[in-house]
Amino acid sequence: MRKPPAVATALLSRIAPEDESLVGDLVEEYAAGRSRAWYWRQVLSAVVMTSARQVALHPLRALAAISTGWGTLLLLFLLADRAGAANGLAGWLWGWDRQTAYATGWWWPFQLTAVFVSYAGFALSALAVARTNVRNAPAMLLAYAASVMLVLAAFDVWMETAMAGQRVPIPHPLFYAVSVALPFHWRSGVLLAPLVIMGVGLLAASRAQPHASPTAR
């Protein structure tokens, strides 16, 4: 009997543990000849629909999760800015400094280290959301990840339309939040940042779950 992708099955079981019939049906379909791509599509569709229903049932909890995520994110970026994290890392790795960059246009070292700081912040904010919402972490992570995607996409549209390509000074803490949606990063963060949030958050939630419900059978 063909075994379905273990990661996909574990994800579905984690998101909708009460819907064992769905897992069974998908496993049977896969054993009958369905492709791995089909199985993953069905799992991801079920994950999104289940999480969306939970968000609709608990809107205040979802709002609190979004606030936790963004609050953690901006606090981390503020601290990283105060510490000169991206500047210092670029200087240590490539001997980069800001004055030379203004004179020569040599910005790529800072852009690389800034994107590292950005994704580290998104990952840590996902941990905060997951650890404060252990029982319904997938739904709350989805709400937070969706808010990040919307903000990054809206910022990109604003930069491309309202600002018409003009150079706009951005406070450094906010720069870390939106840099991954800027053209020089190919707007990759619009999709990658939510994926990082979901991946890191679900992993953290799965590890925390046994401690959160020790009496569960």
- Rg measurement, Å: 20 Å
Shape descriptor reads elongated
The secondary-structure element order is HHHHHHHHHH
Quantity of strands, as a count: 0
The profile of the biggest β sheet is:
none
Alpha plus pi helix count? 10
The CA-CA distance between the termini, in Å, is 28 Å
Structural class: mainly alpha
Helix content: over 70%
Strand content: under 5%
Q: Mean pLDDT score, rounded?
A: 86
Residue stretches low in confidence (pLDDT < 50, at least 5 long) are 211-217
The count of domains is 2
Please explain how this structure is put together.
The longest helix has 25 residues, at 59-83. Mean pLDDT is 86; it is low at 211-217. The protein has 217 residues and is mainly alpha-helical. The chain folds into two domains: 1-56; 58-212, no CATH class. The chain has helices at residues 6-15, 20-31, 36-57, 59-83, 85-94, 98-104, 108-132, 137-160, 172-178, 189-212.
Layout of strands and helices, then pairs:
Blueprint: H1 6-15, H2 20-31, H3 36-57, H4 59-83, H5 85-94, H6 98-104, H7 108-132, H8 137-160, H9 172-178, H10 189-212
Helix pairs in contact: 1-3, 2-3, 3-8, 4-7, 4-8, 4-9, 5-7, 7-8, 7-9, 7-10, 8-10
